Amino acid sequence: MIVLGLTGSIGMGKSTVAALFTGFGVPVFDADAEVHRLQGPGGALVAAIEAAFPGTTGPGGVDRGLLGRRVLHDDAALARLEALVHPAVAAARAVFLHRYRRRRLVVLDIPLLFEKGGWRGVDAVLVVSAPHHVQRRRVLRRPGMTTERFDAILSRQTPDREKRRRADFIVDTSGSLNATRRQVRRLVACLRTRGVRYCRECVRSSSTLKPPASTFPRAIASSR
Ligand SMILES: CC(C)(COP(=O)(O)OP(=O)(O)OC[C@H]1O[C@@H](n2cnc3c(N)ncnc32)[C@H](O)[C@@H]1O)[C@@H](O)C(=O)NCCC(=O)NCCS
Ligand SMILES: Nc1ncnc2c1ncn2[C@@H]1O[C@H](COP(=O)(O)OP(=O)(O)OP(=O)(O)O)[C@@H](O)[C@H]1O
After folding, report:
1. How far is Cα 186 from Cα 209, in angstroms, rounded to an integer?
2. pLDDT tens sequence across 20-35
3. CA 6, 145, 212, 179 torsion: positive or negative?
4. Ligand 2 pocket test: which of 9, 16, 135, 187 has the largest number of ligand atoms within 8 Å of its C-beta?
5. pLDDT tens digits for 28-59?
6. C-alpha 122: how far from its chain's center?
7. Which residues contact 112 (CB under 8 A, 6 or more apart)?
8. What is the value of pTM for the model shown?
9. Fold exhibited by the domain 1-27+104-224
10. Distance 198 CA to ligand 1 centre (A)
11. Exposure of 207 by Cβ count < 10 A (0-12 exposed, 13-18 middle, 19+ buried)?
């Protein structure tokens, strides 16, 4: 089984690419959706989060806006929250991997793959990327988003350039959705039939998956 880690900075098109993998019949584990489920109404983590951060939960589960304001600027508080959340996500991921153990290829969609060390548990990393101005335009279109909020979020994420440097594969989402779909289709076909090592070579010589040299460094083998 090939476990492909999927990540990318805010607005780069990660959710769109994850949906394309699903469309090609590849099982996708969505870490963020799992956190929402665990924190949602009746979620397994609600009681523990209420105990650790009193007043942040209610009938609708965790009030993420409120909890975020308590923890996102307080490293010690964030570490306490992560100590609750991450083991629960790891357990759900283990169930997913067991369920699909006979599949040739599965995807773990993990927004903070580099930031939280998740790259250690995958066979290869796919980074979804686009030039900064495209990312900025997409994110600023979202309701309630401001340049300040966008900059604050970016400053907490591993820079896109660093992510691309460490990627095994890069999908460039700056073109049309069809162009993105073609890249994903090609990667899925290659990984299913040939495996990670061959596909890295394939990426280097392919015209569709190779990022434009002017804006992207070549997709290189990660240092793992
Ligand atoms: C703190 C929470 C409640 C805030 O939720 P909210 O919906 O308001 O914001 P969202 O999840 O979109 O995150 C906002 C920004 O904070 C960043 N962020 C979230 N969790 C973390 C973290 N553990 N470390 C660093 N940055 C983080 C995100 O990358 C994003 O840029 C939520 O993010 C959470 O429960 N985080 C802890 C679990 C976790 O590590 N999740 C991310 C990996 S699956
Ligand atoms: N070629 C493309 N590939 C992917 N997304 C595209 C493309 N062209 C436009 N988009 C748009 O860019 C936006 C990217 O959003 P998406 O939710 O996929 O990003 P994300 O990386 O998951 O963001 P976040 O990390 O904030 O959740 C969407 O509105 C999508 O329709």
Report:
1. 8
2. 999 999 999 999 999 9
3. positive
4. 16
5. 999 999 999 999 999 999 999 999 999 999 99
6. 12
7. 7, 118, 157
8. 0.89
9. Rossmann fold (3.40.50)
10. 35
11. exposed
